[in-house]
């Protein structure tokens, strides 16, 4: 019975597939213990994803997020005997106004947790396609190294402002770069910024997600890569599993490879958000529990996992 802290549905995300209920039913069929519902937050029109431009206004996108939370609560009640559903969201961190959007969401709703992610640097998407990645790289000065430095600086701003309980795809920046399967070798400045960010996450008890979507997208290792995981382990850092699924065909994808990666890196304990655990952050309705990886590997899920 594995866990995922990061998912999207086509009902509430334009670049995903399937309804929220279909996603949940598939997670149940695949034997998930805990599955988090984390749709994207509303954004100003200048930060719409391409598939949203012709279908939404600022008002309709905000309304869609409200509808997601209503439907998520309905699904949690309907399937409470079959799966533990967590209700949260995935943040953005694009421009100064993003912070106020998130604070307004916190004022309006109480969540179990949220996934603190960034997908933009210099307000430009860095994981959408190669062309937009190159625009971001040009804005940073023309090299991967400079763009990586700017990405981790912007991530640090997000971490300081929001202190997310789970940090999403920590090193997403490498996906479309010329260094996608490198270990940041020779990038001393980048390493210093990453270590600073990791130390800050560890200082407030944040958890890094081990995100299998990197494997699905052709990377040799998940997010974050092994050197980052080793550094965070040395700091006493904690990890949680995610598939970052965007539809039923991606739920639990590459989890066996993710498990092998955890064992190779030396992760001995896996954490998960738990509504039965006491919250350590007053903003949220849930805390964290854990399972030893030696126990995780004996769960029946792995007999049928992809």
Automatic annotation (TrEMBL):
<keyword id="KW-0028">Amino-acid biosynthesis</keyword>
<dbReference type="InterPro" id="IPR004013">
    <property type="entry name" value="PHP_dom"/>
</dbReference>
<keyword id="KW-0378">Hydrolase</keyword>
<dbReference type="InterPro" id="IPR016195">
    <property type="entry name" value="Pol/histidinol_Pase-like"/>
</dbReference>
<dbReference type="GO" id="GO:0000105">
    <property type="term" value="P:L-histidine biosynthetic process"/>
</dbReference>
<comment type="pathway">
    <text>Amino-acid biosynthesis; L-histidine biosynthesis; L-histidine from 5-phospho-alpha-D-ribose 1-diphosphate: step 8/9.</text>
</comment>
<dbReference type="InterPro" id="IPR010140">
    <property type="entry name" value="Histidinol_P_phosphatase_HisJ"/>
</dbReference>
<dbReference type="GO" id="GO:0004401">
    <property type="term" value="F:histidinol-phosphatase activity"/>
</dbReference>
<keyword id="KW-0368">Histidine biosynthesis</keyword>
<dbReference type="GO" id="GO:0005737">
    <property type="term" value="C:cytoplasm"/>
</dbReference>
<protein>
    <recommendedName>
        <fullName>Histidinol-phosphatase</fullName>
        <ecNumber>3.1.3.15</ecNumber>
    </recommendedName>
</protein>
<feature type="domain" description="PHP">
    <location>
        <begin position="5"/>
        <end position="213"/>
    </location>
</feature>
<dbReference type="Pfam" id="PF02811">
    <property type="entry name" value="PHP"/>
</dbReference>
<comment type="similarity">
    <text>Belongs to the PHP hydrolase family. HisK subfamily.</text>
</comment>
